[in-house]
Amino acid sequence: MDAQQITDELEHPGARSLLDSATLLRLAYNGSDGLPRVIPIGFYWNGSRVVVCTAATAPKVEALSARPNVAITIDVGDTPAEAKALLVRGVAGVDIVDGVPDEYLAASRKALGADQFTDFERQVRSLYDRMARISVEPTWARFYDFGAGRMPSFLTKLVGRA
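User: That's the sequence. What structure does it adopt?
Assistant: Structure tokens below.
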């Protein structure tokens, strides 16, 4: 998939809605033992990369430093008519930063009300001296909106839509 195709998928209004408003994604990676993992984690979209943050000592930090290829799913909807999903494959870069990354706070702000956020930020800043910022550069992306007929080609053929 070339860079323009990736951009087109990520800029689709439905994909942008998921990137801007969803609070969790599922991150798939290979753990330190080489076996696959999938974890739910908060995220921030900075316009070109998906950013997740975690404790600098979290096991995923070591695993992603050694094996940076990842897959991400952001999805909503409990019925076929409402189902939407953004799938992304990419390469993760890991940086250990002093303090709490801005992206971590921005991701948290999506899930917390203004009245909760102030206390949350104070607690987080007292908890972490350092954190890991994991930035995923997309190398492939696809947005599906099943209710609108924007679905994988094998399903399109199965249901008879062109």
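The helical segments are 3-11, 13-21, 59-66, 102-111, 114-127, 153-159.
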